[in-house]
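Hello support,

Our group uses your service weekly, and this is the first time we've seen a run hang past the timeout. The protein is Peptidase S74 domain-containing protein. I'm not sure whether the cause is the sequence or the server load. Input pasted verbatim:
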Amino acid sequence: MAIPERLTDQELDELDELAQAATPGPWYVQGLDDANAMNLVAVSTVPDLGPTKRWPGFDHREIVAATLVQQPRYVDVADERWDENAFFIAAARNTVPLLVAEVRRLRRQLESLSAKADQELQ
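Update from on-call engineer: The timeout came from a worker crash unrelated to the input. Re-ran successfully.
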């Protein structure tokens, strides 16, 4: 696997802006399975409460994205990685702001250490 190029400061800013513009986190994965939403796998702003939270009891405004809607068949990715995709989407929402901040912190630390090393060489 090739090592990706370094993210530019502009790319970090864009990621940060995307995260700030999105629905606030944390996000969670919810499974809904009833006569109205057969095997629905969704990304939600609230944790999954298990089988007690079903239509019409769940609030559709809590759903950010769906990775599987089988009935009616609206969302159904060919590789059948519905759960994996939902967990990735939720993890990305929850982690991208932390990763951007960590990259920036490490870059500042590296710049500081480089400047210190330059001073010691002079």
